[in-house]
Each structure stands twice: as C-alpha cells, then as structure tokens.
Amino acid sequence: MILEGRVWKYAQQVRATDLVPARYDFIKLTDWTECSTHVLEDLDPQFVVNVLRGDLIVGGQGFGAGHAHYFQQAFEGPRWLGVGGYLAESFDPIFMVSAMGAGMPCWSVPRILDFVSTGDRLRCDLTAGTILNLTAGTSAQYRALAPEVVEVLEAGGLDKLTVRKLGLDAGV
Amino acid sequence: MQMTMTQKILAAASGKEVVPGDVINVPVSGVSVHDSAPMGIFDTYPQARVWDPSKVVICYDHFSRANMGPYHARFRDFVHDQGIPPQNVFAPGRQGISHQVPGEEGFVLPGTVYAVFDTQGATLGALNCFAFTSLFTTPSVLALGTALVVVPEAVDVTLTGSLSPGVTSKDLTFHLQAKYGQKLIGRVLEFRGPGVTSLSVDQRLGVANASNNIGALTMIFPGDEVLAEWLAPRVRDSYSFVAPDPGAEYAANLTIDLGEVLPLVSGPDSIEKIFGLGDVIGLPVDAAYIGSCSAGRLDDLALAAKVLEGGTIDPSVRFVVTPISTEVMREASERGIINTLVAAGAIVTPPGCGACYIGNQSPLILADGERCIASSVSNDPGRMGSKSAEIYLSNPAVVAASALEGRIADPRPYLLKSSKVSQ
C-alpha cells in the first residue's frame, strides 16, 4: 500500500482536538464536508487553504490523544478534505484503531520528525515499511504495517471489509 | 518472554506472542452496546448477523427512562432480529450503564478481552481483564467477533496504604492525571501492591473508568480475594486470574501511597484543570449531581448518605442522584441509603447515565451562568445544558457536602461527625 503526498509537519503532540477543535463536537457536527473546512483551524489556519489531496499530516508522540468523543470529527474531517494519512512518532491507540477502522491510514514511525520537513514530498510503502523523501533524496526503513491493518485500509475501512468478508454485498 | 498482564491476556486470546506496537485482530469474549450506539452495517444490511448473540449485551443507559419509547424501539427490533437472548438485554426495569451491568451480571471474566462501544469501556478492567472501547469499530466487532487492537505499552502502578476518609477513586484518578499525565497516554495502567486490596471493586471500577479521561487505553487490576468474592455469585463460567510475570518489562513504574491522595476538583470547562479542594472551596453552586459511570455505585451513594445523614440540603440547590444500575438502586434501597438521600432533599432518578450528558435528556439541565458540582465524567461547556454554565467534578462526598452548604464544601467534618454518632 503506497501513500504519496506533501508533508505538513507539526513537531508536537497533535491532539484530536487540534485536528478538529472540540467546539464542533459540542454542536454535534456530522456534516463531514462542513467539518473538513475546520481541520487544524486553531493550530494552522492556512492548512485548509493550501492542502492538496493526498497530503500527509506528520506529528510527534501520542497523535490523536484526547477524549474519544472528539475522534470522529478528527479523522472524518481530514479524510473528507482529502488528507492521505497520518504519520507520527506514536499514536493514541484508541484514536489509531478508530481512524484506521474508518479507512484513514496511520503509521507509527519513530523519529519521523527528524526525517521530514513541511513541504517535503514523501512516498511511503506501508506494506514494505519504506519511506522515500523525494524532496531531500533520502530514504528510510521502518516497521511495516501489519497485514491485518493493510487489509482494512485497502478495503476502505472496517465496515467495508466486514461487508466483503461476510458477503453482505453479494447481488447488490 | 516475560509478559505484562496486557501481553498475557492479548496473547492468550490471539494465540500468539504480542509486543507493544503490534496491531492485532483479537477475538473478544463479549461485546456490550448501549442504546445510542450507531449500528453501521447492521442498519445498512438487514441480513447482517452478530457473530454470537449469546455474547452480546444490550444496555439501556443513555435513554433509560420509561418515557423514551421511541429510542427503545430501535434496539428492541435489533435484539429480536438478531436472536439476542432476553436475559442479555437490560431494558427499562433492569437497566444500567453498559460498562457496569456486564460485570454485575457475570458476563465479564478475568483474563478475557471484552469490548464495549462506550468511550468509558475500560471501566471493566477492574475485573482483571482487558476491557476497552471498540467505539466506531463496534459494528465490525459484533459481526466478526474480533477487534483490531494496538498492543499498548504498560505502566506498572504499585499502590500502598489506603484512601483517607472523604477521599475516593475519583480523587485517585485526578491525582494520576495531574501528577503523571503524559506518562500514561496511550498506555495500560497495571495495578499491583498492598494498596489494591484496600479498594473495593466499586472503587476499582471508578478508577478504571477514568482511563479515557487520562488518555490511557485501559487499566487492569490484579485478581485478589476481594475480587473473587465479588465475582463468585455473578460469573457465568469458570475463570483464572491473570498476573504479570516477575520480570515483565514496563514503560514506567510508579508508586502511589493512597494515604497521600487528597480531595481534588476538576473544572470548569476542561477535565485537564485539576485543583485542590481548598482552591475552590466556597464557590456557590446551583446544582449538584451524583451518578454516572464514574461515581454512581453503591460505595458512592453510601458515602454521600453518610455525609447527608440527618441534614437538609441548601434550598437553593437542585440535587439529583442517579444510581449506575438497577442492582445498585435495589441495594441502595434495601440498605436505607435512598431514604437518607431523599430525606435530605435529593431527587433520586431511575438508573442510567443520568445528568452526565444533555443529549440523553438529562434530569438536570443547567441554565446560563449556573454552577454545578458533579461526580460524573465530563465538564465540557454545554455538557449539562447551557454552554455558559460551569461544571466542576469531584468525588460524591464533596458533592453531597456542597449540596448541604450551597457552595463547594469539604465533606470531612460531616464524616467525622457521622462516625462519632455511630460509635
């Protein structure tokens, strides 16, 4: 599975409420197109203006941490905006499973902050565990994503994979 | 390999050795779902079936009151269509919170992996199991009987001593959050040490309940005689306790003397603002609430009753108490606790999530500019009504004392008085 896109690096813990501010959970915003206009609104107001489809958000440790009430906005908003995936030194495990379950790639890559800068173009092979920094001309090898996870992401999320596994869409 | 409790439980369930960072698809022993859960593929595909109806528990908690029929119809149909046994369904009359009832009713066994839709699903980790919130992945867990889990690092927490009078599990969780916050994020807290036995199972459930607030994936308490005794009349199958291997590796090791934990208060507007009780004492309150999955258990209600015994709440305070489950309601009634609460001026509601969240048609809704002290889970603006209302969170003894005085108050003088009377 390949992700290719430009880096938006935030060298800190990017919390769920940084991805989409908590005030949109309080109003129970589930219009994901509207939600996508609020991605990183407080942390980097220029993000939604300049982001391109497939771009990657890169953060430090505990990416996505916070009360799980905020998780759905935090992965649906960026997903609907066209963000290609999250790379971080480490992830909040509940956020990571929730986001990947919705089809949003999350890759835990220790020392990623030393390897990339904002604007770099990356080509990540999640199955092989390799990252090419096409801008810097460097490459690195990390731990590949588990086959169980690649299967979920390639299906477009857990619900879609489950439907396929159980043959629920047969004849539809 | 020397394993933590987390590793042992996940390895046993998945049939392979696991190390932190692994992502595994692990079979679960059961799933608990509450009445406001989105059912995803089950709504889209009526022919979808749960993997094992006997292992699914349905709890009415968010919409648990009798007048909420339209909310009940949806799950009544689901239960019928899926063939879920009636004894697994905790509908009004038997209702309770989705991460309390499966424990009370013996569906959750030590050493197992147990999934709960609710964000606070880790609560059941008090029963020496790996309990976690499966959140938005729940429909696939229901369909396949397996869950995607990131194997977390574990933190070893050794407890010594015992909690002082007027201090509860709620304060221990604030203490953990305030003192060790960043060390706990994304990890599992595994408890051990002589202090564990001093905590009742109610208190352990209250501690593990805070996993999500602290940012931990879950918590696991060890097995001991206190837990064995609690489980004995409940469990539906045989079980063995899980203990860590002697040389198991932990990401951090903490020791907490329970005797040093003081009453703490969190808020307003953020669970990350934590103060000593002395810093907020005297702030006037308009409303007081005891209940929720954080502190609506028998221990919590009994402690509140001890503070309230013989007293009358301030007439300007609306004081609501919601037991966590029907079992707790019944027990509190039999022991006279409900009488004491009502005599003092409390409004006692049917069991469930109660006033913790306005979305469930809370029995306690705050107006603009009001201030509430609550023993519940969250204090986000608007959580209990108006966004301009302030919510402070504390243990139930502090809530009860505050209801008596009409301002945030210290329960310890009342407890001292009460213990003198009973001597």
What does the model show?
The complex is a heterodimer of chains A (172) and B (423). Chain A is an alpha/beta fold. Chain A has one domain: Aconitase, domain 4. Helix content of chain A is 34%, strand content 19%. Chain A is built from 9 helices and 7 strands. In chain A, strands 4-3-2-1-5-6-7 form a 7-stranded mixed sheet. By secondary structure, chain B is of the alpha/beta class. Classes of the chains: A alpha/beta (172), B alpha/beta (423).
What would you say about this model in short?
Chain A has 172 residues and is of the alpha/beta class. Helix content of chain A is 34%, strand content 19%.
The helicity of chain B comes to 25-40%
| Count of alpha and pi helical runs of chain B | 16
Main beta-sheet strand count, sense and barrel state of chain A: 7 strands, mixed
**N-to-C series of helices and strands of chain A:** EHHHHEHEHEHEEEHH
Number of strands of chain A: 7
Radius of gyration of chain B: 21 Å
> Can you tell me the number of structural domains of chain B?
2
Low-pLDDT runs of 5+ residues of chain B are none
What is the CATH first-level class name of chain A? Alpha Beta
Question: Which structural class matches the secondary elements of chain A?
Answer: alpha/beta
What is the topology, as strand order, of the major beta sheet of chain A? 4-3-2-1-5-6-7
CATH topology of chain A: Aconitase, domain 4
Physical arrangement of strands within the biggest beta sheet of chain B: 4-3-2-5-6
Number of E-state strands of chain B: 18
SS-based class of chain B: alpha/beta
Q: How far apart lie the N and C ends of chain B?
A: 53 Å
Rg for CA atoms of chain A? 16 Å
CATH fold-level topology of the largest domain in chain B: Aconitase, domain 3
CATH class of the largest domain in chain B: Alpha Beta
Topology of this structure?
The complex is a heterodimer of chains A (172) and B (423).
Chain A: E1 2-10, H1 16-19, H2 23-26, H3 32-36, H4 47-50, E2 56-59, H5 71-81, E3 85-88, H6 93-101, E4 106-108, H7 112-115, E5 121-125, E6 130-133, E7 138-141, H8 147-155, H9 158-165
Parallel strand pairs in A: 1-2, 2-3, 3-4
Antiparallel strand pairs in A: 1-5, 5-6, 6-7
Helix pairs in contact in A: 8-9
Chain B: H1 5-14, E1 23-27, E2 30-34, H2 41-44, E3 56-59, H3 69-82, E4 89-90, H4 101-104, E5 113-116, E6 130-133, H5 138-144, E7 146-150, E8 154-160, H6 169-184, E9 188-192, H7 201-208, H8 211-214, E10 218-220, H9 225-231, E11 252-257, E12 264-266, E13 274-276, H10 277-280, E14 287-290, H11 292-295, H12 298-308, E15 318-321, H13 326-334, H14 337-344, E16 347-348, E17 371-374, E18 390-393, H15 396-405, H16 412-422
Parallel strand pairs in B: 2-3, 2-5, 3-4, 5-6, 8-9, 8-11, 9-10, 14-15, 14-17, 15-16, 17-18
Antiparallel strand pairs in B: 1-7, 12-13
